[in-house]
Amino acid sequence: MAIDLGLLLGNKNPPLIGLDISTSGVKLVELADAGKNEYRLERFASEPLPRGAVVDGNIENIEQVSEAVRRVCKKSGTRARHVAIGMPPASVITKKIVLPAGLSEDELEVQVESEANQYIPFALEEVSLDFDVIGLAPNSPDDVEVLIAATRKEKVEDRVAVVEAAGLKPLVMDIESYAARAAIDRVTAQLPKGGQGQIVALFQIGAQATHVSVLLDGQTIYEREQPFGGNQLTQDIVRAYGMTFEEAETKKRAGDLPEGYQQELLEPFLDNAALEVTRAIQFFFTSTPFTHIDQIFLAGGCANIPGLVEMVAERTKISTSVVSPFKGMQLGSNLREKQLRAEAPAFLVACGLAMRRFD
């Protein structure tokens, strides 16, 4: 079975959970409509994955991942069965093309397929292909801009298999970076003047990689991925204290490490992280016409490490804060605010996926 890489959700009535499957774990978010374009966060939960279950965005062990999905659903208490899942940006080829306005859906499909052949290095029967009409083409009122998204069928089928094995039904598949952008757009809209004209840099620091997006007025103007993540600190702990990777990860999260940890391991890691951010910003300046950034947002599992925000702000001389995708949302009655504050930055993609319910 193939599932469209749909940026659109046909029926917005059924409850829908956003499910983010990453290298380190599975994260779930369920939102409800609170009226007046407001959301209520009903449920959120995460569940770690064994090492090697997901590698570089590829699902290597369907059974382990579907078991984690089952556990995260149980832990959250959700009854929703419909799911929005994400694909890693590196697995998806996207391209904007311009086509004549006024084509029927079938005509669009034919045109998209013939255009896609130029950009996709695989046979079309090997890929899941989808497209979305973005709007009128700039400077050309007779044309429309169309976004094409394509990925290998097997990558889609692996994610579908995981979700179905956990007893869920995949309704929407999106690109993780697009889901994160949907979530961040909500947050930037709460900046002064609704964030208009503000250049915002989003750093999602994951277990293995840091995804960098620079946004201006809801559009991505720059994107790159850097091979730097929280696993580096975990590996340092493994080497320094002779622990297993799992033990080191648990103790890192709990802050339960020997006395010299902060000075010997944590501070050099923070220093390195701030250097990666500074380097990414320099790349942005040298490869685009832009010369400044107004705001840095840190997200991902590492964003809340004590001292990171301050160090990045000091190095870059740019206003820096940890981002919560749930900022300004109403909260369901069973949610613990302290836990939410600590974990929210890691839920950007899951939150953006859950927002697909309201498209």
From TrEMBL:
UniProt xrefs under CDD domains: ASKHA_NBD_PilM
A Pfam family: PilM_2
Coiled coil: none
Domain SHS2 residue range list: 16-184
Protein name in the entry: Fimbrial assembly protein
Species, as recorded: Noviherbaspirillum aridicola
